[in-house]
Amino acid sequence: MAPGELATRWTVRLALICSLAGAVAKAYAGTDERRLRLARAAWTAGWGLYLAHVTCAFQFYHHWSHAAAYLHTARRTAELCGRNWGAGLYFNYAFTAAWTLDILTCWCCPSTRRLARPVLIAWYGFFLFMVVNATIVFETGPVRWAAVAGLAMLTLTWIKSRRGSERMRDEE
Fold first, then answer.
1. DSSP secondary structure code for residue 111 in this structure
2. Ranges of each domain in the chain
């Protein structure tokens, strides 16, 4: 495997591991400021590695050409879905912008960051949509199965953290 391909693949794999660790850590952090900082650091590391992945993909696969990236996206979508459609690339651009905004708000105003529930649902729903498409729909083999395991772990974490927060409300 060529070095550029290795860098592109491993930066995104590490980004997924860090973002999963950040999400799980945040679910268990509660109001513990130290744990919240660790969760935020893991989430930020995931974002930084994701940006490195995007940089590697544009450098080694698309040669800094939006048109080449668009054609690649269209070809992959046609292979999987039977429709030659490259506009999914714009979802990637929106994802990059949204995650960057999320990171900025996490660090610039962590103590006052209280996003409305519909905004949180939309953001994390979009995040999961992108990750599931990238790792389960468009991938195969060990990467797909690792993503399924990570998604299962995240789902169990969410269920457990919801039960814990419901118990805390009941005790009040």
1. T
2. 3-171
How many CB atoms lie under 10 A from the CB of residue 26? 19
Return the closest-CA partner of residue 20 out of 127, 166, 162: 127
Contacts for 17 with CB less than 8 Å, ≥ 6 apart: 46
Q: Any idea what the Cα angle at residue 95 is, between residues 150 and 104, rounded to 5°?
A: 95
Q: Residue 67 has which token pair?
A: 């048109």
User: What is d(CA 85, CA 89) in angstroms, rounded to the nearest whole number?
Assistant: 9
Q: What values do phi and psi take at 95, rounded to 5? A: -60, -45
User: How far is it, in rounded angstroms, from Cα 98 to Cα 104?
Assistant: 10
Question: How confident is the model over 42-84, as pLDDT tens digits?
Answer: 999 999 999 999 999 999 999 999 999 999 999 999 999 999 9
The per-residue pLDDT for range 5-42, each reduced to its tens digit, is: 999 999 999 999 999 999 999 888 888 989 999 999 99
pLDDT tens digits along 119-171: 888 998 999 999 999 999 988 899 999 999 999 999 998 888 877 665 555 55
Torsional sign, CA 147, 102, 96, 45 = negative
DSSP output for 19-34: HHHHHHHHHHHTT-HH
